[in-house]
Amino acid sequence: MSTGWNAASAPDTATVPALPRNLGLRQYLICLRGICVREGLRFIHQRERFVSSLVRPLMWLFIFAAGFRQVLGVSIIPPYRTYVLYEVYITPGLCGMILLFGGMQSSLSMVYDREMGNMRTLLVSPFPRWFLLVSKLLAGVTVSVLQVYVFLAIAWFWGVKAPPLGYLMVLPALFLSGMMLCALGLLLSSLIKQLENFSGIMNFVIFPMYFASPALYPLWRIQEASPLLYKICLLNPFTYAVELIRFAFYGQVEWLSLGIVAGLTALFLGAAILAYSPTRGLVNRKQDTGGNG
Length: 293
Prior knowledge:
By secondary structure, the chain is mainly alpha-helical. The protein has one domain (23-288). The protein has 14 helices and no strands. Helix 3 (47-68) runs antiparallel to helix 4 (86-116) and helix 8 (171-189) runs parallel beside helix 13 (255-275).
């Protein structure tokens, strides 16, 4: 019986490759490129995802802003030096909307990969799990930032323009804000047990984050209307992402927003790495129970 058991288990042992102990920089770059290419190809093949990512902010820009331009006036507040059109004011918030939905789409893809078994193939590779998650994060942010620039190009032809250098200077703010939102999505993907539950996350995370922020109206107006809502906005991470993007368009740094966004990026990413840890995390337990726990 013992001999038969050893013979039966021998092929399984033989098929497990020896894990390299020392992976060089070249191997890490190849892995990063592979994950980025995979994310890019997935986005290209899902054309409806690209269209929907632009339809939402363009509807707000072309329809909502036109209807509320005279109702919701914007006073002279930093970083603006004069009165601006309402379309100009909400543009940074719409850029944040694209990043926010991009982060949630990234979490959706993680849940899908877990249900289809693709994640198991990725996580058993010889690369550190934190590197795989960071690579996934960078790939998702890159796709989202490209969508933002497509939106800005369409807005430019519509007449909504930022300072010429602002399109370049806003890139670090977009990337950092996207990192924070994608890291949040990565953390949420470790908590979502089934793909069908994603719609609940859309309703109870994305929309409250977007509307309880200065994306559509200045914070001073929110404070006048509802002090409680104003305090909620101050607790909202998306608030600081929007303000960081807004100031960056005009070549300025909003240091409070920069510190909070950078700190929350590290917090969300660290929590996601722990959640995906095979010893401490939640994903390993869900896979053991078939993902239906």
